[in-house]
Write a structure and sequence with these properties.
Chain A: Keywords: Calcium, Cell membrane, Lipoprotein, Membrane, Metal-binding, Myristate, Plant defense, Repeat. The complex is a heterodimer of chains A (583) and B (205). Chain A has 583 residues and is of the alpha+beta class. Chain A contains 13 helices and 27 strands. Chain A folds into 3 domains: 134 residues, Immunoglobulin-like, CATH 2.60.40; 134 residues, C2 domain (Immunoglobulin-like, Sandwich); 242 residues, 3-Layer(aba) Sandwich (Rossmann fold), CATH 3.40.50.410. Chain B has a 4-stranded antiparallel β-sheet, with no helix packed on it. Classes of the chains: A alpha+beta (583), B mainly beta (205).
């Protein structure tokens, strides 16, 4: 999900859903993530039977695990796999001091019609000491457990209003059964619309709700869905002690606001740390109306509905839309099909840790019967995908960690053995170059990635200076044992600002923990020894064992993060698809 | 010889003083050689400020300057200015190396306080302004007429690229029939031939 959780000072004051933090982080429009995979399947006449579903979660009557205040709940969604293990799909944000939370952060899951997808929801109470930490990095075992619920995704999808309420249950020891409250799941299909609306909002003359200081206002925007339930879609940050607040620009995707005429409820609330935010005022406007107010420079009066009388009171407080911009966010496919080229480079691990090629246990085993070894299998499977997305079927191919014919260990030698010209054509080219390298190169060590990463970075930077719209992907096929972690980190961080992604494909069953560190999926950014931090996430690790055990397809595994990494590069630089009008 | 640098102080993340998140108004000071420039103050962000403030500074290119210093500071209620942390940006990170001339470099650095403890991350972009003779290499190339391609491609690609909507009860949940048509480009079977690339329903373009 989006990188939009900022983790603010006072915990819970951050903006959620629609505020971008880093220039190079992709916004929360992740529908694009999957169109690359779909496209691959569709092009060969296979239609993937799934659609993207977005789940909104809310809960009521949760139990209270905090002594002095109420629980601070966060929900985590898992998919139960065939072997019974739970795979985490996503997390919501933490809502402060609430037993009836209505989470804003949505969780996306692909709904496969033919499969039974069992979803497991865990609800946790997050202690206040963790409130400034990005939720992705939270260790769940440190949090208080509030209960869990299970359902099958198709159960939700077949309900007429696409929502389902589940009873939470949990094991608190001694067989005590308690009422743990309920969890409601609302499903919606994601749209692939590329329109994004950006607004600058501010308020004037808000009522004061605090006794000793002024109100601490924030806006919460909810959308009314079909069955007239309001689903919160976005929340601005809290502006402390101000009755004329101005917020950071709010960015809403079509996925969030529905259609231009769909009414949105905009509430202005006073932030209270105890979780009972006082309503200052509310108004109901569609996106189209907000645009009109912006054009005509009109302000919108807030209304307060008093609970005792049920009467609406028009307030002095007003909402002003200072700026309204409709933008188009191009997707990965827009770029690729407009002529933005993807160029793949391949590097194969020739270090001794793979085992002697004469030994049948080796990953490089040279089978006399011609049966492909682990590397050949990986090259073939991966090759199919990169051949499809690679624009010219020509791949620079290198080996590393091998002793070449001149009896020196090289950390980036040409796989085809040629002194000049490292390019091979097609998967067959890689395969034959690999076979010849296996004959001519002795496995050695140590395992250094930095040379091939630097070589790839050089190619990427050369194309930059030649003004060609290209994006590069370096595919490193390795057994995963790395000698020089610091050097590799330095090289990856150095290359993180270039149009380059690094896909590490792990073969064999070695310990891949180092690769997981490089992948940095836990939200931490790679850091070099000189203190430079990776500009964006460019590394993805794909273990082939996961592919072979049938958990994911090769295409899905390889293309999982690439579109996002690609978009983070082009969007941060305002690069448009070739020939498309400027945004 | 001197060149002007366009430095944008974009944002910072996880600013800390004494291991506690910064709540106060933060700003940046950039130092090159003896010169220094100050950004505007962020009042919203606390420990995650966003400045998006561009400054232009001169830098001698004779190798005498090896680092640009970025210091994040905060202003206390009393008006005093205190340091959060400092990052030293090696000039080689944006001149020479992998960065072609005129390239907009997005760079991030770890901030460290006086004791050497980590006190956050600062995100900047730096561009060495090209001298007059050089053309900026922003990759917005090849003027192609979108309308012209779309008519060609639509006929060839229709029916092959996506599944038509089924009339079964699943139709509402299928998604693909409906998803693809909204201005998603269509790529024909022959993907090397770029003239066969086109856009259907190109109202948004």
């Amino acid at each position: 999900m989006g990188n939009c959780l900022t983790g603010d000072v006072a915990g819970g004051k951050q903006a959620i859903g629609g505020v971008q933090q880093r220039p190079t982080s992709t916004s929360n429009n992740n529908a694009a993530l999957n169109d690359a995979v779909d496209f691959f399947f569709r092009s060969r006449g296979q239609y993937p039977l799934f659609s993207q579903i977005e789940l909104s979660l809310s809960a009521s009557n949760l139990i209270d695990r905090d002594i002095t205040s109420k629980s601070d709940p966060m929900a985590v969604m898992y998919l139960r796999k065939k072997d019974g293990k739970l795979e985490e799909i996503g997390r919501t944000e933490v809502i402060l001091n609430s037993l009836d939370p209505n989470w804003i952060e949505k969780i996306t899951v692909s709904f496969q019609f033919e499969a039974v997808q069992t979803l497991v929801f865990h609800v946790y109470d997050v202690d206040s000491q963790y409130h400034n930490v990005p939720v992705k990095t939270l260790k769940l075992k440190d949090q208080d457990y509030l209960g869990e619920a299970t359902c099958v995704l198709s159960e939700i999808m077949t309900k007429p209003n696409r929502s389902l309420t589940l009873n939470l249950n949990g094991n608190f020891g001694a067989g005590v059964s308690r009422r743990l409250g309920t969890l409601s799941v609302q499903a919606e299909e994601t749209t692939a619309s590329k329109t994004v609306v950006e607004m600058n909002l501010r308020c004037i003359n808000l009522d004061n709700k605090d006794l000793f200081s002024k109100s601490d206002p924030f806006l919460r925007i909810s959308r009314i869905v079909e069955n007239s339930v309001a689903v919160p879609i976005c929340r601005t940050e809290v502006v402390d002690n101000n009755l004329n607040p101005m917020w950071r620009p709010v960015c809403l995707t079509t996925q969030q606001y529905g259609s231009r005429d769909n009414p949105l409820i905009i509430e202005c609330l006073d932030f209270n740390t105890n979780g009972t935010h006082d309503l200052i005022g509310r108004t109901q406007k569609s996106v189209a109306e907000l645009e009109r107010h912006c054009l005509q420079k009109e302000s919108v009066n807030f209304v307060y509905t008093s609970t005792s009388h049920g009467r609406n009171k028009v307030l002095k407080g007003q909402l002003i839309v200072d700026r309204f911009v409709e933008k188009v966010q191009y997707s990965f496919l827009d770029y690729i099909s407009s002529g933005f080229e993807l160029n793949f480079m391949v590097a194969v691990d020739f270090t001794a840790s793979n085992g002697d090629p004469r030994n049948p246990g080796s990953l490089h085993y040279n089978d006399p019967s011609g049966k492909p070894n682990s590397y050949q299998q990986a090259i073939m499977e991966v090759g199919e995908v990169i051949q499809f997305y690679g624009s010219d079927r020509r791949f620079p191919a290198w080996g590393f960690g091998g002793r070449t014919s001149d009896n020196t260990v090289s950390h980036a030698f040409n796989l085809n053995g040629a002194p000049h010209g490292d390019e091979v054509v097609g998967v067959e080219g890689i395969m034959s170059a690999y076979a010849s390298a296996l004959h001519n190169v002795a496995l050695a060590g140590p395992t250094l990635f930095s040379h091939v990463v630097d070589k790839a970075a050089n190619i990427a930077s050369q194309s930059l200076s030649q003004n060609i719209p290209k994006y590069f992907v370096l595919l490193i096929i390795t057994d995963g044992v790395l000698t020089d972690m610091a050097g590799t980190l330095d090289a990856l961080v150095r290359a993180s600002d270039l149009p380059l992604s690094v896909l590490i494909v792990g073969v064999g069953n070695a310990d891949f923990s180092q690769m997981e560190i490089l992948d940095a999926d836990n939200g931490r950014r790679l850091e070099s020894s000189t203190g430079r931090v990776a500009t964006r996430d460019t590394v993805q690790f794909v273990p082939m064992t996961a592919v072979h055990s049938g958990q994911v397809s090769v295409v899905q595994a390889l293309l999982e993060e690439l579109p996002g990494q690609f978009l983070s590069y082009v969007r941060s630089r305002n690069i448009n698809p070739v020939g498309a009008p400027a945004i | 010889m001197k060149r002007s640098l366009e430095i944008e102080l974009i944002s910072a993340e996880g600013l800390k003083v004494d291991r506690k998140p910064v709540k106060k108004k933060t700003f940046c000071v950039v130092r090159i050689d003896q010169n220094s420039e100050v950004t505007k103050i962020d009042t919203f962000g606390g420990s995650h400020p966003i400045w998006k403030d561009k400054i232009v500074m001169e830098m001698p290119m004779d190798g005498s300057v090896r680092f640009i210093i970025v210091e994040v500071k905060y202003r206390t209620k009393g008006g005093a200015e205190k340091s959060v942390g400092v990052a030293k940006i090696p000039v080689t990170d944006f001149v020479g190396g992998f960065a072609p001339q005129g390239h907009l470099n997005f760079l991030s650095y770890r901030l460290r306080d006086q004791c050497g403890d980590k006190s956050g991350i600062v995100n900047v972009s730096i561009m060495v302004k090209p001298d007059g003779s050089y053309k900026s290499p922003s990759p917005t190339v090849a003027q192609k007429d979108y309308a012209a391609c779309s008519s060609q491609a639509a006929a060839a690609a229709n029916g092959q690229m996506w599944r038509p909507r089924t009339s079964s009860s699943m139709a509402t949940t299928v998604g693909y029939g409906g998803r693809v048509v909204t201005g998603v480009p269509v790529w024909c079977a022959n993907n090397n031939n770029k003239s066969s690339i086109g856009y259907r329903n190109s109202t948004k373009w």
